[in-house]
Amino acid sequence: MHVSYEVRAGDFSIAGKVSSTVKGILKQLNLTPAHVKRIIVALYEAEVNVVAHSFGGKIDCDIDSEQVVITVSDTGPGIADLELAMTEGWSTATAEVREMGFGAGMGLSNIRKNTDILKIDTGKGKPTIISMTFRLAEGAEHA
Q1: pLDDT digits 0-9 by tens, 99-139
Q2: Cα–Cα distance list, 71 to 26, 100, 125 (Å)
Q3: How many CA atoms within 13 Å lie on the side-chain side of 75?
Q4: Residue 44 — pLDDT band, cuts 50, 70, 90?
Q5: Where are the alpha helices (DSSP H) in 7-119?
Q6: In order of start, what are the domains of the chain with their CATH numbers?
Q7: The whole model's pTM is what?
Q8: What 8-state DSSP symbol labels residue 34?
Protein backbone atom coordinates (compact mmCIF):
# COMPACT_ATOMS: atom_id res chain seq x y z
CA MET A 1 0.00 0.00 0.00
CA HIS A 2 1.26 3.44 -0.89
CA VAL A 3 -0.09 6.73 0.46
CA SER A 4 1.23 10.23 -0.12
CA TYR A 5 0.56 13.56 1.58
CA GLU A 6 1.57 17.18 1.08
CA VAL A 7 2.81 19.18 4.09
CA ARG A 8 2.55 22.97 4.19
CA ALA A 9 5.30 25.03 5.74
CA GLY A 10 4.43 27.11 8.79
CA ASP A 11 0.89 25.75 9.21
CA PHE A 12 1.02 24.53 12.80
CA SER A 13 -2.79 24.30 12.93
CA ILE A 14 -2.56 21.06 10.96
CA ALA A 15 0.86 19.83 12.11
CA GLY A 16 0.34 16.19 13.04
CA LYS A 17 -2.59 15.61 10.70
CA VAL A 18 -0.60 13.28 8.43
CA SER A 19 0.70 11.36 11.44
CA SER A 20 -2.83 10.95 12.75
CA THR A 21 -4.11 9.73 9.38
CA VAL A 22 -1.27 7.21 9.03
CA LYS A 23 -1.88 6.02 12.60
CA GLY A 24 -5.45 5.15 11.64
CA ILE A 25 -4.23 3.21 8.61
CA LEU A 26 -1.68 1.26 10.66
CA LYS A 27 -4.31 0.36 13.25
CA GLN A 28 -6.69 -0.84 10.51
CA LEU A 29 -3.87 -3.07 9.23
CA ASN A 30 -3.60 -4.57 12.75
CA LEU A 31 0.00 -3.59 13.41
CA THR A 32 1.04 -4.11 16.99
CA PRO A 33 0.67 -1.12 19.34
CA ALA A 34 4.47 -1.08 19.78
CA HIS A 35 5.02 -0.80 16.03
CA VAL A 36 2.34 1.87 15.65
CA LYS A 37 3.83 3.92 18.48
CA ARG A 38 7.38 4.06 17.17
CA ILE A 39 6.29 4.67 13.57
CA ILE A 40 4.02 7.53 14.60
CA VAL A 41 6.55 9.11 16.98
CA ALA A 42 9.14 9.23 14.19
CA LEU A 43 6.63 10.38 11.57
CA TYR A 44 5.21 13.12 13.79
CA GLU A 45 8.71 14.48 14.50
CA ALA A 46 9.55 14.50 10.79
CA GLU A 47 6.22 16.12 9.91
CA VAL A 48 6.68 18.90 12.46
CA ASN A 49 10.23 19.49 11.18
CA VAL A 50 8.83 20.07 7.67
CA VAL A 51 6.23 22.49 9.04
CA ALA A 52 8.73 24.37 11.24
CA HIS A 53 11.94 24.40 9.21
CA SER A 54 11.22 24.03 5.48
CA PHE A 55 9.29 25.63 2.67
CA GLY A 56 6.89 22.67 2.52
CA GLY A 57 7.21 19.06 1.54
CA LYS A 58 5.78 15.63 0.94
CA ILE A 59 5.39 12.43 2.94
CA ASP A 60 5.26 9.06 1.18
CA CYS A 61 4.39 5.89 3.09
CA ASP A 62 4.91 2.41 1.69
CA ILE A 63 3.42 -0.33 3.84
CA ASP A 64 3.66 -4.07 3.33
CA SER A 65 3.67 -7.14 5.56
CA GLU A 66 7.43 -6.94 6.16
CA GLN A 67 8.05 -3.25 6.74
CA VAL A 68 6.88 0.34 6.64
CA VAL A 69 9.07 2.79 4.71
CA ILE A 70 8.33 6.49 5.09
CA THR A 71 10.09 9.11 3.00
CA VAL A 72 9.79 12.74 4.04
CA SER A 73 11.03 15.21 1.42
CA ASP A 74 11.09 18.95 1.93
CA THR A 75 11.97 21.94 -0.21
CA GLY A 76 14.89 23.30 1.79
CA PRO A 77 16.79 25.17 3.24
CA GLY A 78 18.60 22.00 4.34
CA ILE A 79 20.56 21.12 7.44
CA ALA A 80 24.04 22.63 7.43
CA ASP A 81 25.48 20.39 10.17
CA LEU A 82 23.58 17.10 10.40
CA GLU A 83 25.72 15.72 13.23
CA LEU A 84 24.98 18.78 15.36
CA ALA A 85 21.28 18.64 14.43
CA MET A 86 21.14 15.03 15.69
CA THR A 87 22.24 16.22 19.16
CA GLU A 88 19.42 16.08 21.71
CA GLY A 89 18.33 19.58 22.69
CA TRP A 90 19.97 21.38 19.78
CA SER A 91 17.49 23.43 17.76
CA THR A 92 17.29 26.18 15.18
CA ALA A 93 13.61 26.83 15.94
CA THR A 94 12.58 30.46 16.12
CA ALA A 95 11.26 32.00 19.32
CA GLU A 96 7.78 32.00 17.78
CA VAL A 97 7.96 28.25 17.10
CA ARG A 98 9.19 27.59 20.65
CA GLU A 99 6.34 29.67 22.11
CA MET A 100 3.91 27.29 20.37
CA GLY A 101 5.53 24.35 22.18
CA PHE A 102 7.68 23.08 19.32
CA GLY A 103 11.43 23.26 18.70
CA ALA A 104 12.79 21.45 21.74
CA GLY A 105 15.59 19.92 19.68
CA MET A 106 14.42 16.32 20.04
CA GLY A 107 13.02 15.73 16.55
CA LEU A 108 15.90 14.05 14.74
CA SER A 109 17.10 12.17 17.82
CA ASN A 110 13.56 10.82 18.43
CA ILE A 111 13.39 9.76 14.79
CA ARG A 112 16.73 7.95 15.13
CA LYS A 113 15.63 6.17 18.32
CA ASN A 114 12.44 4.83 16.73
CA THR A 115 13.60 3.68 13.30
CA ASP A 116 15.32 0.46 12.28
CA ILE A 117 17.02 2.13 9.31
CA LEU A 118 17.41 5.90 8.98
CA LYS A 119 18.90 7.71 6.00
CA ILE A 120 19.10 11.50 5.80
CA ASP A 121 20.22 13.31 2.67
CA THR A 122 20.66 17.02 3.32
CA GLY A 123 23.07 19.92 3.29
CA LYS A 124 23.04 23.67 3.51
CA GLY A 125 20.86 25.15 0.79
CA LYS A 126 19.45 21.85 -0.47
CA PRO A 127 16.28 19.93 0.27
CA THR A 128 16.24 17.35 3.05
CA ILE A 129 15.11 13.79 2.35
CA ILE A 130 14.58 11.50 5.33
CA SER A 131 13.98 7.80 4.72
CA MET A 132 12.74 5.83 7.74
CA THR A 133 12.36 2.04 7.68
CA PHE A 134 10.45 0.11 10.33
CA ARG A 135 10.67 -3.70 10.26
CA LEU A 136 7.45 -5.54 11.08
CA ALA A 137 8.59 -9.18 10.99
CA GLU A 138 8.25 -11.34 14.12
CA GLY A 139 11.35 -11.01 16.26
CA ALA A 140 12.34 -7.75 14.54
CA GLU A 141 10.70 -5.61 17.23
CA HIS A 142 12.74 -2.49 17.94
CA ALA A 143 14.50 -2.41 21.30
Answers
A1: 655 655 557 888 999 999 999 999 899 999 999 999 998 65
A2: 16, 26, 19
A3: 10
A4: very high
A5: 17-28, 33-53, 82-85, 95-99, 107-114
A6: 2-135 (3.30.565.10)
A7: 0.86
A8: H
